[in-house]
Amino acid sequence: MSDQSKVDPGRLLTPEEMKPYLAGVDPSIKAVAPGSLGKVETPDTMAAQEGIASDEHGIPADLAMQSRALLRHQREHWPMLAKGFESLETVQVRTFDFDGFGMKVQFNPGRIVSSSAKVDKKSIRERKCFLCQAHLPPEQKGVLHGDYMVLGNPFPIFSEHFTIPHMKHVPQLIRDAFEPMLELSAAMGRFYTLFYNGPRCGASAPDHLHFQGGERGFMPMDTGWEDMAARHGTWVADDDRLRIARVDDGLRRYIILESDDKSKLMQRFDQLYSAFAEASRLAGSEAGEDEEPMLNILTTKEADRWRVVAFLRRKHRPARFFAEGDEKMVFSPASVDFGGVCITPVERDFHRITPDDLRDMFNEVSVTPEVLDAVIKKL
Ligand SMILES: [Zn+2]
């Protein structure tokens, strides 16, 4: 068997390929006009102004900047991905107001593949894994970061959308991957929020560990979390180093962890995981006893603090997903939907869905307030 973790150098975007796409990659860094102070805007002088180290090729040591450059490169060199991002220009959006917060609904026909993906064990066994290096399309390039590779997502929801698979074909499980998720969030934190879909919570590759990333600010939860905690939640722990909130907004039940201390976050997440695994077993959940409790997780690092939003679930898809006729609605919620952007890949569903439909379906797939309480008590 070949060593899956061995990186194929042909997969990596070379410094020469990346360089042209780095100029102006961070609009918040003011370019120095040519002639003034004798400096010209180049990726390395731009990065140097912010104190970001550059390597010997002049590439800034910032994964977010490199990832943005990667996506720009891929849009020019990989037609399928370019088409995916162009199709975003035609998506339609509706916004529903709930109790002090908004939820968006996006009609995105490109997502039908993911929304209706078969993720049962037999289907997974019989398909080629699309996250393994050996099966990536020839045009696809990546940026390596530790054991993970940042890739452009050819079926985007965000205007910048990444898939970040582990180099090895290992199962989608968060318990031992939470630290790398925090580290990747820090490395991508300049522009992006990361998310994790549990193996029974919307991951279309439950057999291959991966995260996704998209530009921060797109999901209402990116900017609304503090408000949500104030209006619909309680801060159950609150000091300078670690804050924990319990939130029930009438649709979703979730826990927010916020800290500048990685080890504290890891310790609390581990407690959350154990408590939720136990509560899920007692309350009944689609996840079996030996499986991961059902989670979607958003993480980001902004101004030196990590923020983790863990949505607690009991079901993968609402009953209406499997219904026939008018009752049927193709809504298969994962992290982005829980983050406040609900994807409807069928146009008819997009036009007829109501706030009450959303409320019912989120409640159906989310844990009860009692389960949320049982988890919070252990934190
Ligand atoms: Zn794989």
Provide a concise account of the structure shown.
With 379 residues, the chain is α+β, with helices and mostly antiparallel strands. It is built from 14 helices and 13 strands.
List keywords for this structure.
binds zinc ion; alpha+beta; globular; 21% strand; ten-stranded antiparallel beta sheet; 13 strands; 379 residues; HIT family, subunit A
How would you characterize the overall build of this protein?
- With 379 residues, the protein is α+β, with helices and mostly antiparallel strands.
- The chain has a single domain, classed as HIT family, subunit A (2-Layer Sandwich).
- The protein is built from 14 helices and 13 strands.
- Strands 3-4-5-7-6-11-12-10-9-8 form a 10-stranded antiparallel beta sheet, with helices on both faces. It has a 3-stranded mixed beta sheet with strand order 1-2-13.
- Strand 1 and strand 2 (102-107) form a beta hairpin.
- Helix 9 (262-283) packs across helix 14 (369-377).
- The radius of gyration is 21 Å and the shape is globular.
- The model is unreliable at 32-40 (pLDDT under 50).
- The structure holds zinc ion.
- The site of zinc ion has 5 residues, from loops.
